[in-house]
Design a protein that fits this description.
Layout: E1 3-8, E2 13-20, E3 29-33, H1 40-47, E4 59-60, E5 63-64, E6 72-75, H2 87-96, H3 104-117, H4 133-145, E7 151-155, H5 163-180, E8 183-187, H6 191-197, E9 200-204, E10 211-216, H7 231-254
Parallel strand pairs: 3-8, 3-9, 6-7, 7-8
Antiparallel strand pairs: 1-2, 4-5, 9-10
Keywords: ATP-binding, Nucleotide-binding, Transport
GO molecular function, one term: ATP hydrolysis activity
Organism: Paenibacillus taichungensis
């Protein structure tokens, strides 16, 4: 990738990404952690084609897709469901705007199967305001999951949830991903969440962001929360926390 990005202000230029490079293999779950405001969401916007970098390329299966929209599926921090559409129709939305989507009858059958598998059977004709926050997040995730794109970008999808619901959603996501094995790039501020979910973790520096560490997560799958109490897990959590504290300290010293 080697992506560079900056924002222009009236009298200056604010660097955001500084030669940032990362890879996601087929069927791999990769997490990104870094200080708040370091440019993680900007990176997602570039990968998704919403922004163009000042330098570098986004490659997918060896092809340059820089600046092209519709190449990835995206789940933002908030569910972003359309309130006038039923739950079923919200799940089907990604297919409606994609040229690679299956016929509607096939997509509808698939959506109903997945809604049932995640505990939302009977809510197909409900509207978003009738669902809890965790249930809405499941719908948003299924919408991304059932889109035809090979890569899913998940931008802190559980950050707005309470601790108990977040734990439930992490366990649910692990189960669904084990069944589907889509390629995932996942942003989180939660180091424990990254270690629980991911195969690899990229640790970013302060803005302008660059990769300062790449961590292979060695724990066998399928995973459960019990691993968060193991010494190897706690040691990796401590090390990543230390790296991030050092980056935050650099920010304070530079002010």
């Amino acid at each position: 990738m080697n992506v560079h990005a900056s924002f222009r202000e009236r009298r200056s230029t604010l660097p955001v990404l500084d030669g940032l490079s990362l890879t996601v293999e087929q069927g791999e779950f990769v997490a990104i952690v870094g200080p708040s405001g370091c440019g993680k969401s900007t990176l997602f916007h570039i990968i998704g084609g919403l922004l163009k970098p000042q330098g570098g390329q986004i490659l997918m299966n060896g092809q340059d897709v820089t600046g092209q929209r519709g190449k990835i599926s995206y789940m933002p921090q908030q569910p972003a469901l359309f309130p006038w559409r039923t739950i079923e129709d919200n799940v089907l939305l990604a297919g409606e705007v994609s040229a690679d989507a299956p016929p509607r009858a096939e997509a509808l059958a698939d959506a109903r199967k997945w809604l049932s598998s995640v505990g939302l059977a009977g809510f197909e004709q409900a509207y978003p305001h009738m669902l809890s926050g965790g249930m809405q997040q499941r719908v948003a995730f299924l919408r991304a999951l059932l889109s035809p794109q090979e890569l899913m970008l998940l931008d802190e999808p559980f950050s707005a949830l309470d601790a108990l619901t977040r734990s439930d959603m992490q366990r649910w996501l692990l189960d669904i991903w084990e069944q589907n094995r889509r390629s995932v790039l996942f942003i989180t501020h939660n180091i424990e969440e990254a270690l629980l979910l991911a195969d690899r973790i990229y640790v970013l520096s302060n803005r302008p962001a660059a990769v300062i560490h790449e961590v292979d997560v060695p724990f066998d799958r399928p995973r459960r929360e019990a691993i968060t109490e193991e010494s190897a897990f706690l040691e990796r959590k401590r090390q990543i926390s230390q790296w991030m504290r050092e980056e935050q300290q650099k920010t304070r010293l530079s002010k």
